Amino acid sequence: MFLSTLASKPTVMIRLIFSTIAGTFFLCATFIALLTVPFFQNQGIYLNSIRLTWFQDVAVPEQWGFMHNQVTPFTLQTPDGEILHAWHILPLGLYLLYETELLDEPSGIVPDVTKSLGFKILREDPEALLVLYFHGAAGTLGSGWRPPSYRAMSATSPNKIHTIAIDYRGFGASTGRPTEEGLLLDALTLAEFALKDANIPPSRIAIFGQSLGTAVGISLAHHMATRPTNPILFSGMVLVAPFADVELLIASYRVAGMIPLLDPLARFPRLMALLNSYILSRWPSKDKLAEYLRHIEAGKRGDEAKYHIEIIHAEDDYDIPWSHSDKVFWHAVNATSHVGTSFEDLETYKLDARRDMGAGGWVVECFTQRGLVREEIVKYGLHDRIMSYPVVSRAVSRALRVEVLSGTVIAHDPDCH
Which keywords has UniProt assigned to this entry (predicted)? Predict the structure, then answer.
């Protein structure tokens, strides 16, 4: 009996191994098959059906710890007729200055945001600063770490930095369904509202994006800066947990941050190219950011416009590997010079040039006469929690030029390229 039990153990182990391999193969095959179906592909990229605030009313921001009427819920209409749900968040310092008047304001979604007190405070302050906030996939503007993140936006300047966040089409209470072109139009609608209705000049506006929102923010900045008439350059961009593009994101996707579903397929470039041909929303962030920077560096705007780009990622982010930020940074740096550099050479340069902050991670900066591209990798923060951290608050402050930049401006340091 004892010998029989011992003899059966290898058989059990072999069956277990084969079952695991078969299960993994089935999961991988199913994942690949679903990616070729537009509906499932869209859900895989945007996850907009997962609201995460099913039992909360996003017209009542106080549920997320805001002071009464500190947040003004309102709607925006896009040029193609979609209705976007939005929040205007007053910084706490300003709220306390106007608290008595704000408490007398009606609550809920306002029919005309331009008549709200919060909007008037924003529009009539010649020193007001504004963050256009683009959140990640899934949920609504009230989900997860997003409300704490809104508070972090104004942490360094609680009397000046306003935030406006939107739910893209198909998210939360907004109408429509998400597409790459549609989300850009949503972002343009918000930008035009800030520039024209709120009358805030672009020099006092920063773009903040996290995860999917980084792709939206980059697309917005690229569109505004490169349009043939009346090009616009915002004060700066803060990109938290960006991805290089959807193709690379899918190839690097890991279930629970551990199981690389497409790793076997990635070993066959032609098969990966075939799969990529089915992708509808590509979000080529690395390429659009590079084109945006080349446009500014070439002086095509005919002025001395400057850019400021902050890239932030956590090492323990298992949703989007921080290697994506390395790729985005490399494409950005290459775009600032005609010389160029390989990815490997830039990584070698970064080992010597980066500033080590111990348990806080590290940062590397590339200055040019036209601006700054900064990559900061922190050790902790996961994918979403990092949005509420001081590292993000400081980045927003720098993007809005609240602080004087440190470092020496150099004209294309050859070692950086």
Answer: Hydrolase, Membrane, Transmembrane, Transmembrane helix
The answer to whether 256 touches 250, Cβ cutoff 8 Å, is no
E strands within 61-140? 71-77, 83-89, 129-134
In tens digits, what is the pLDDT along the chain, a chain of 417 residues? Answer: 554 554 555 676 676 666 655 655 565 566 566 566 666 667 778 989 888 888 889 999 999 999 999 999 999 999 999 999 999 999 999 999 999 999 999 999 999 999 999 999 999 999 999 999 999 999 999 999 999 999 999 999 999 999 999 999 999 999 999 999 999 999 999 999 999 999 999 999 999 999 999 999 999 999 999 999 999 999 999 999 999 998 888 777 665 555 555 566 566 677 666 666 667 778 999 999 999 999 999 876 556 778 999 999 999 999 999 999 999 999 999 999 888 889 999 999 999 999 999 999 999 999 988 999 999 999 999 999 999 999 999 999 999 988 644 433 333 344 465
Phi-psi label, residue 56: left if phi above 0, alpha if psi -120 to 50, beta otherwise? beta
Distances in Å between the Cα of 191 and the Cα atoms of 165, 220, 303, 333, 375 are: 11, 8, 21, 26, 25
pTM exceeds 0.85: yes
* Tokens at 225, concatenated: 């800066």
131, β-bridge pairs:
163, 206
Residue 317 contacts by C-beta under 8 Å, 6 or more apart in sequence? 241, 381, 382, 383, 386
Q: Per the structure block, which two tokens stand in for 72?
A: 């003004």
